[in-house]
Amino acid sequence: MSTSTHLFERRPKSVAQGDDDRSYRLMIPSIVACLIATTVLLLRLYCRRSIKQSLWWDDYLIFIAYVGFTSIFLMQILLGMTFPNKSQGTSLGLGKHVAVVQTESPNTVTTIFHTLVPAEFSYVTSILFTKHSILAFYWRMFSVRSMTIAVRIMLAITTLWLIGSGTAALLSCVPLQKLWNPAVPGTCIKSRTLYIGAAIPNVITDFVILIIPLPYVWH
To answer: Which domain holds residue 49?
Structure first.
């Protein structure tokens, strides 16, 4: 755990680096991804309706995943948008170097860090229910005992991943206020450690979920 180094303390190596605004490079892929996800979801509903097939668990679960994804998308857009003021546009700072934003508007940095924990929960929730939707689809398509057992095991493992990731986000700083206020006494987990710790089991479970149906498809 880190007790002295905090993200706020980082400074740009040069003026050019500090002035680099990447907000639009972050927002454009997010907008495209949201449009694709929305289109696919609407097409899914249309197909269900056109063949007069009722919704099942895999459909309901992907709707929940979409809500989590959309909440992250909205947070990112709001944090990256530029709002007009009396003299010039002002951004909430997403995509700019943290040291520059801290110098120009310290309260904005606090606002960004306030969103980290809700964003983390929205992210893992979206990922979890996407995995659960796929597993529910397997359950519906392959009605054999071995598949049912595999699906149940993966449902349990991915749920434990959600609990672990959520707990890690809540305990990323103790007390949590230190996340947005480095002056508060306490300790923080390095963000790199936190994100890699969540990403590794995420990737592993993705791979396992991908290969689960292969034996049944081959036969």
So the answer is: 7-218
